[in-house]
Structure formats: structure tokens, C-alpha cells
Amino acid sequence: MAIILYVLIGVLAAIVGWQWVSGKKRSRRLRDITDKIGDILDRETAEKVLFQTGQADLRLLLVQINRLLDHNRKIMADYARTKDSLRKMISNMSHDLKTPLTVILGYAEKLNQEIPMSEEEKKQTVSRLNEKVNGLIALVNQFFDLVKIESDDYEIPLSKLALNEVCRQSVLEFYDLLVSKNLQVELEIPERPIYILGNEHALQRILGNLISNSIRYGSDGGVFGLTLREEGEFVAVDVWDRGKGITEAHQDRVFERLYTLDDARNPQFQGSGLGLSITKRLTEQMKGTIRLSSSPHEKTTFTCTFKQLTF
User: Fold this and answer.
1) Which of 129, 177, 231, 239 is the most buried if burial means most Cβ atoms within 10 Å?
2) How far apart are CA 274 and CA 68, in angstroms?
3) Distance of alpha carbon 94 from its chain centroid, rounded?
4) What span, in angstroms and rounded, lies between the C-alpha atoms of 197 and 97?
5) Of the candidates 239, 262, 236, which has an alpha carbon nearest to the alpha carbon of residue 178?
6) What's this model's pTM, rounded to 2 decimal places?
7) Nearest 5°: phi and psi at 180?
8) d(CA 51, CA 54)
């Protein structure tokens, strides 16, 4: 009996000793993990906490810690991108507002001077002043439109639309301008109705933005085209031209707010950098997607894709 008692005491002592050693090792491992996390956060590196352990609960803890570190890095990266985008947007906005305001001020000062002006010269100055004021109002309205569209509670009513009819009407609205630019117009729009769930006003604005954009930047190619085609259960609208196009370096950024190509700052081009941003967000409001493909001086295509209604 005494022998059994001594054995039990020995076993208990061994268990207690093992737990004490195990606890010490666990505490040391936890301190190492804590130090490693602190080092990663202080140096803002993309490292992970890597330790070998046979303890399942500790492995699970390491997995969750690394997930948290990944999530934190993504948040910081998104914040940095948003901050940079906001800085550029404010810079571009300042430029886009300052330029017409300076011109408007110049015309106003010219009219206010006591230097004699002929009636024809005065009429031309007033006409240009009116044009610049209207352009500035349109630009400010685009700013407000984009803010409204990007708000979380912005929704547009959707209904069954014949997409081919909206395409025809949109091209017709620009027909006189297309002719004045001596552009060859190539349309491929099926006669039979093709339906989507959309908003007619939003769709007209999307197509209007894409068509005017194509005329503004692609008219040097001599051709404007619009193609409506089916892609399985989807339907796609291609608005294309054969102009100078958009280089690969710019293609991923053309839908950013207030992002413009260098020559869009040329007075010859009236771009504000807002039209394509609004187009993208309106397309997404109708559960669609928009993409760009461009081979300069060969073919530049903006493609809007929507789910086709089959009933």
C-alpha cells in the first residue's frame, strides 16, 4: 500500500513538474510572440508571426494573429491610396475651377474697362463670358452629381428597357456633331429588341458620356462605332474609335475621379476627368460592368456589359 502511495505521489509530482515546465515554455513563447508583433508594428513590415509549436491552441492563435496583421496592412494600404487619391482630386479640382474663373475674371475686367469697344467686340466678349460661366456651372454640377452617385443611399429605379432603342437614340443625338467632324459612323445594332434591367436616364447619360468622349479624343481616327452584341446571358455595348487611344499606363486609371490625360488640360479638350467616373458608377448602379481596351491609332473600345432579360 505504501509503495502504491509513493508511486502516486511520484506521478503527481511529475505531472506538476511537467505542467510547471510547460507553463514556463508557454509563457516564454507568448513573450516571444508579443515581442515579434511589436517589432512588426513598429517597423511596419509585411512579415508574419512564424513559430513552430505542437500546441493546437497556440497554432490557432498564430493563425488569427497573422490574419489580423494582414487585415491591418490592407486597411493601411487602402487608407494610403485614398489619401493620395483625395490629394490629387483636390489638386485637379482646384485647377479645373481656377482656370475658368481666371478667364471669367479677365473677360469681366475687359468689359469693366473704359477702353472703347465696338459693338461686335463687346458682343463677342459677352458671348465668351457666358460660355465660360455655363461651362463652370456644368463642371460644378458634375462635382455634385458624382458626390450624390457615390453616396451610400443613392439608388436609381430599374425597369425593363430595350437597349437597342436607347443606343439608336443616343447616337442620333450626336449625329450632327459626328457629321461636322467628318467621322465615318459604323453601327451594329440588332433589329430585334434586346432587353436589360436598367434606368433609361442613366443609360442615356452613360452612352452620352462615352460617345462624346470618343468624339473628343478619337476623332483623329476618322471613324466612330457603336456595336451592340450578345455574350451568352449578357449583352455588351461597345463604343469605339480608331483615334490616338490611351496608353497602357493610363488605362487602369481613366475611371478615377478627376483623373485626366495630360492633353486633357489643353483648352482644345474640354475634359474634366469626371465623365468616366460618373459613367462607371452609373453602370454599376445598374448591376453592370465597364472596361477599356485600347491599341493607340488602331482601336479604342469602352465596353459596358449588362445581364440580359430573356422574358
Assistant:
1) 239
2) 36
3) 20
4) 37
5) 239
6) 0.62
7) -65, -25
8) 10
pLDDT tens over the chain, length 311 residues: 445 444 444 544 444 444 444 555 556 666 766 776 666 667 666 676 666 666 676 667 667 777 777 777 788 777 777 777 667 666 666 766 777 788 788 878 877 876 777 788 888 888 888 888 887 887 777 777 777 777 767 788 999 999 999 999 999 999 889 998 999 999 999 999 999 999 999 999 999 999 998 998 888 999 999 999 998 899 999 999 999 888 877 777 788 765 655 444 334 434 456 788 889 999 999 999 999 999 888 999 999 999 998 76
By the 8 A CB rule, do 228 and 193 touch? no
Helices (H), 151-274: 163-173, 175-180, 200-218, 248-251
Give φ, ψ of 103 to 5 degrees: -65, -45
